[in-house]
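SEQUENCE, STRUCTURE TOKENS:
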Amino acid sequence: MKYLSIKETALRWGISEQRIQVLCKARRIPGTIMIGCTWGISEDSIKSADAQIDSRRHIQKSVEDKN
């Protein structure tokens, strides 16, 4: 099985390296392993659904508050 670095995965998924590190630490990406002090992400892993705040909901709320 081939493992990708955080940098390779970030480029592949179009998100930041820092976000990949956070997802790995939270065990949100299946198929990750620690290789020394570096994360290895399985080449077969798929991008997990992100649980960050949906900004559209935030914008909608602030517009409603102003009215």
